[in-house]
Amino acid sequence: MNALELVNLTMQFGGLMVTNDVSLSLEKGARHALIGPNGAGKTTLINLITGRLTPRKGNVLLEGVDIVSFPQHRRIRMGLVRNFQVTNLFSSFTALENIALAVSERNGSGLSLARCYGFADPVIAEAEDIARRMGLANVAPVPVRHLAYGQQRLVELAVAMALRPRVLLLDEPAAGLPAADHEVILGALDELPEDVAVLLVEHDMPLVFRFARQITVLAEGTVIAQGTPDQIRQDASVRAAYLGNRS
Ligand SMILES: Nc1ncnc2c1ncn2[C@@H]1O[C@H](COP(=O)(O)OP(=O)(O)OP(=O)(O)O)[C@@H](O)[C@H]1O
Predict the structure, then answer these.
(1) What superkingdom heads the lineage (predicted)?
(2) Among 10, 12, 16, 18, which is best to mutate for testing ligand 1, by the most ligand atoms less than 8 A from CB?
(3) In the chain, is it the N or the C terminus that has fewer CB atoms within a 10 Å radius of its CB?
(4) Domain limits of the chain?
(5) Cα angle vertex 51, ends 207, 104, to 5°?
(6) Residues within 6 Å of ligand 1 by CB
(7) CATH no. for 1-79+165-247
(8) pLDDT tens string 125-158
């Protein structure tokens, strides 16, 4: 059974077809990248998977269960996790507290208990471990709003890790980060349990080609190619539509 399967997803904004009959499968443990030019519909596809948008047609199967009608929070509880955006972090909380909140949310103890009574020791220990693995140990006690943008982006990823995803969706996790931090991202992904599937949307081609075992290329809402990194590099239509001046 696939970790994630998209079946004939279709989405329009007004008259603009942004997701055109897209089908895509991620096996358990997949390292799959979704690439394509600006406006190709990559973020829209992520939003259809998370439930932020509802497709006009098609299905989203998570480990065999059709979740297309499920609300976002239910999908997260089932292990479908997207990297948080900086704007979703609690900016007056420290990096460690943001991670600890995600750990306690996952445990079912949630925000209100944590705020009233502080975090339990095992929650803090786990959050510290995640912060260390993400290279955030030094800034763990710093409120997120005082962190550099790049560090805030790494906290986003740490929060997603803390939710223990079964399928992790990463929308441009490296945008705005120096290349040195790509190592931190790749290192953190390496530490995920082997069967966790990852779908990465990214414009940074060196990062994509280091990360991915499978690549899907989207252009104008349509899948134009799918294959291994070598197959994609050599695909003439992909070079014409996108990679020509990038790889
Ligand atoms: N809420 C919306 N309403 C109307 N049009 C939208 C909306 N969101 C996205 N679009 C349009 O849908 C198309 C696909 O956008 P999307 O953001 O999914 O592309 P993308 O591949 O993620 O682009 P980028 O690489 O630049 O982030 C674009 O033409 C965009 O302008």
Answers:
(1) Bacteria
(2) 18
(3) N
(4) 1-79+165-247, 85-164
(5) 80
(6) 13, 16, 18, 36, 38-44
(7) 3.40.50.300
(8) 999 999 998 889 999 999 999 998 888 988 998 9
